[in-house]
Design goal:
Length: 392
């Protein structure tokens, strides 16, 4: 292991090398472009020895990965925003075919209006495709989560594709250190992929994706659901092994900071974590019992961990950098649904903001948390959701 200084996009390309990915297919789109660009450069230099496929669209990129994974090859791609949306049909195909593809999505606002900065709407809109979803907060976490994602996706108990999300520009183009692992080091954690199910082989032809009549279709979907749910337990095993081998641990599906005795817990996804931790630390010094729960995984949703946390707190202050139009904050609503069948139901306040790359400072986060404390003290829940820093 050696420490490198790179942007998250360059680190993602390095993860492709470390994980011995056999096929990368990609089409450029800001701010994801430098991921395949760097893979191509590493390919030319002989550092990345797999196949790099230049395609004409993001739709083609995902279907090229589907073709590669169907033959038993380890496959990867990267995209962003409208590019992810163009992949929609193929995302459903990959999940239903139980193909362990890993996709690095660089979160970016969906146009119009034209905006190339971070909003989580692109990946939020794909929550129901069957893809496992991670949200990372640092360059180091992105690099190691991509490697872990192949291990998770390829596990026979899971066999579902994985989307690793990173905030556009805030992470994608910002230099930071990460601990690089040579492929030989990763080999002891991630062996070559050997499909435990169907595979396309001219010597042993199979038929896949044919028409499935109503008698059986539902069962196929249930198996997808079951595999996705299994990811929570399997990922726990993976992180423990990864920590033992490489000393890296990022907190599981929910990374908690000072949650043990917290009355209010602030939740968010992505790169806001650093500011959130600073805000929590400052409020602690001011006498407020507050904690920070960074949601690393939102599909499958860590229901039991949220319930365990919710059993000890008075309120969740849930911040979404995206919106389910007409229904508010997606993760806030997931937390509400998770707590419905419990005896103790804390207040769950939903906040939406930081859209289009608008900055969320330590003071902004403190304001949000203090608003939640006001609801706890007054017993007044307030609006269904609050749009933070909305211009009048």
């Amino acid at each position: 292991m050696k420490t490198e200084l790179m942007s998250a996009n360059y680190a993602a390309a390095r993860a492709v090398v470390s994980a011995r990915v056999e096929v990368v297919a990609a089409y450029p789109i800001t701010p994801a472009t430098t991921v395949p660009e760097q893979v191509a450069l590493l390919n030319e230099k002989g550092i990345y020895t797999g196949q790099f496929i230049r395609v004409e669209s993001e739709h083609s990129a995902m279907f090229a990965c589907i073709g590669a994974s169907s033959t038993g090859a380890r496959a990867f791609t990267a995209t962003s925003s409208n590019g992810l949306l163009l992949m929609d049909e193929a995302l459903h195909w990959a999940a239903a075919a139980r193909l362990p593809i890993v996709l690095n999505n660089i979160n970016r606002s969906v146009s119009p209006s034209w905006n190339i900065h971070v909003t989580h709407d692109d990946s939020y809109s794909k929550r129901d495709t069957g893809w496992i979803q991670f949200y990372v907060s640092s360059v180091d976490e992105l690099y190691h989560t991509i490697i872990q994602s192949f291990k998770l996706a390829e596990d026979e108990r899971v066999l579902m594709p994985v989307m690793v999300n990173a905030d556009g520009f805030v992470l994608s183009h910002t230099l930071s250190t990460f601990d690089y692992l040579e492929p030989e080091e990763v080999d002891k954690f991630l062996p070559p992929y050997s499909p435990p199910h169907w595979v396309m082989d001219p010597q042993n032809p199979v038929s896949h994706g044919n028409i499935v009549f109503p008698e059986y279709y539902q069962e196929f979907r249930y198996m997808m659901h079951e595999g996705t749910l299994n990811a929570l337990k399997v990922y726990d095993e993976i992180e423990k092994k990864y920590k033992k081998l490489f000393g890296k641990y990022f907190g599981g599906p929910i990374d908690c900071h000072k949650c043990e005795d917290a009355e209010v817990v602030f939740t968010s996804q992505g790169s806001m974590a650093a500011e959130a931790i600073d805000a929590v630390n400052e409020l602690r010094e001011e006498g407020y019992k507050v904690g920070n729960a960074r949601m690393r995984m939102i599909r499958p949703f860590p229901v039991e961990k949220i319930r365990e946390l919710g059993s000890r707190v008075k309120a969740f202050s849930s911040f979404d950098r995206g919106v389910s139009y007409g229904f508010g904050g997606p993760v806030a609503n997931d937390i509400r649904a998770s707590m419905y069948h419990t005896k103790h139901r804390p207040i769950i306040k939903s906040y939406i903001g930081g859209l289009g790359g608008r900055d969320m400072t330590v003071e902004d986060i403190k304001d949000v948390i203090l608003d939640t404390f006001n609801s706890v003290e007054s017993g007044e829940l307030g609006p269904e959701e609050t749009w933070h820093d909305l211009m009048e």
